[in-house]
Amino acid sequence: MGLRILTNRVTDHAGDAHELAALYAPPMSPWLRVNMVSTADGAATGSDGRSGSINNEVDGRVFHLLRELADVIVVGAGTARAEGYRPAAKPIVLVSRGGEVPDSLRTATSGSVLMATTEAAAGTARQVLGDDNVIVLGESLVDLALLKPALAVRGLSDILCEGGPHLLTTLLAAGAVDELCATTVPRLVGGPYPRITDGPAIDVPVELMLLLEDSGTLIARWFVQR
User: Fold this and answer.
1) How many domains does the structure of the chain reveal?
2) Are 73 and 88 in contact (CB under 8 A)?
3) Host domain of residue 147
4) In this structure, is residue 14 part of a structural domain?
5) pLDDT digits (tens, 9 = 90+) for 49-107
6) CATH code for the domain in which residue 127 is found
7) Which end of the chain is more exposed for a tag (fewer CB within 10 A), N or C?
């Protein structure tokens, strides 16, 4: 079975890598999209507290495609720590109020890991990453409304955020998200697991732009409405 395009009442196949890449082309620059996965009953992680325990091969195809298309990968430092992030082919930008770099990224090649943090915590990050790799976005709180322009100035305009749930909520509240790529895997896990958003209540309208299906896994592309 291949991916089927279901939006706008159109049914087609999107199994070709070039066609799939075209479907995910950002409509403008800079562009910030967030990619998240959850189960059919809304869990963003499995029992081990990691999204890797609920994703599957279909989700993995889009996950790797979005990384290929991106100029930079943004992730919360806590999520990077929990998921065991390693240096990638694209620069990774950690978002952290405290400035602590996860152990798995502390020895990365200079420039392959950056941190967006506060003035109060910048010194901690600079000790590990160096001055040029620390982006200050506020005094005591990370002002995520400044994240996209700060990265665009560095030539990093196609921005992929991989969460976690708290960072997604904060980005949405700041009006910084252009697109949500949401995978729903055909599993039910119950339990007290988080959703893909976590934090204060928000009310952000989105428009469904693309819906793909393969073996029961749904891959949706939602555009945030301004």
Assistant:
1) 1
2) yes
3) 27-224
4) no
5) 999 999 999 999 999 999 999 999 999 999 999 999 999 999 999 999 999 999 999 99
6) 3.40.430.10
7) C
Nearest of 47, 109, 52, 56 to residue 79 by alpha carbon = 52
CA distance 12 to 224: 25
Neighbours of 119 (CB within 10 A): 11
Q: Is residue 170 part of a domain?
A: yes
pLDDT, one tens digit per residue, over 138-180 is: 999 999 999 999 999 999 999 999 999 999 999 999 999 999 9
- Look at the alpha carbons of 92, 95, 99, 103 in this order and tell me if their dihedral is positive or negative: negative
Report yes or no on 210 lying in a domain. yes
Pairing of strands 217-224, 206-214: antiparallel
Q: Per-residue b/e over 80-96, b at no fewer than 16 CB within 10 Å?
A: bbbbebeeeebbbbbbb
Residue 163: Cβ within 10 Å count: 25
Alpha helix locations (H) across the chain?
Answer: 17-23, 57-69, 77-83, 122-129, 147-153, 165-173
Say how many residues make up the chain: 226
The whole-number average pLDDT for the span 193-208 is 96
Neighbours of 51 (CB within 10 A): 27
Q: Report yes or no: 156 and 72 within 8 Å, Cβ to Cβ.
A: yes
Burial class from Cβ neighbours inside 10 Å (0-12, 13-18, 19+) for residue 169 reads buried
End-to-end CA distance of the chain: 36
Residue 3 lies in a domain: no
